[in-house]
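Hi F.,

I've been meaning to write this up properly since the lab meeting, where we talked about keeping a consistent format for the predictions we share between groups. The idea is simple: the sequence comes first, exactly as it goes in, then the structure tokens exactly as they come out, then a line or two of notes. No screenshots and no reformatting. I'm using this chain as the first example so we have something concrete to point to.
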Amino acid sequence: MRIARGVKSLLHKLRTPVVIIGNFDGVHRGHVHLFEEAEALARSLADPAEGQAAGEVVVLTFEPHPAKVLAPAYAPPLITPLARKLELIAEAGVDVTVVEPFDRAFAAQSPTEFVDRVLVAGLGARRVCVGYDFTFGSRRSGSVQTLTELGHARGFDVTCVPAFTVDGMVCSSTKVREFVLAGRLEGARLLLGRDPEVEGVVVRGDGRGRKIGVPTANLQPESELLPKNGVYAGWAELLDAPGSRFVAAINIGTNPTFQEGRPVTVEAHLIDTEIDLYGKRLRLGFVKRLRDEERFASVDALVAQIRRDVAETRQMISAGARR
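Output, unedited:
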């Protein structure tokens, strides 16, 4: 997949582009469905008799998330950092992703200005594919109907993809966030099509885990969205060594046994593994919520519970259990 930082940075003309517009936070199953619809449209543009190849599937997304510019106090925590979002979009088979810088000047464009400057002059869109709830332009004044009318006048078609549902539930980034924040991993996994994740750099912590015989990697999360405080069975992957996945017992919380009022930390004990992780980038996947975080009467009681958590995690993940 090719990545362009804004339409102005495109170095060559796109081949009969089918453009998909959206924020795509989390790159959930609804987003992937939209990409698949666009891919089918791109294939339909091929005409072997005329020597016409299939079109290119082009994702147009925005950085930062528009809500962080227009209403920062109400902006949702992002499910995926930009780098991870681009990685997941690439895995979905998209040809080109354009990351358009979003600021107040960009937001102030009218729907007509957006279409003329970005879709027509910038991308040369042949077809545009959007979700059922798509809005655009200043104050969200443009709708799918607006886009369709503008496209008709400028020579591109618009396809509106209906809501994608899973088990009768509309797949949305908002619903994914709701599930993750509640620690409801099964619901989040159903919509994402993968385990909920957090990634970041391993930093030095207090060293208490090593002192009690359960060393942990302390993650400085790049991900804004964290599951509800508690203990989880999951996995850890070294991002500098793709495919290096380890079974992990993960704690999100404040370690109340040692001190009340501490900030929330993310710690992972990589089971049956001894490896120096300081300074390395790590991705943690959450498979099952084991329990709430607790304040124990003694360190011994805490250690005994941690060992039970580790045993349960080892058995569950090693056996491939998902629930």
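Notes:
The mean pLDDT is 93.
The first helix runs from residue 29 to 44.

If this format works for you, I'll send the rest the same way.

G.
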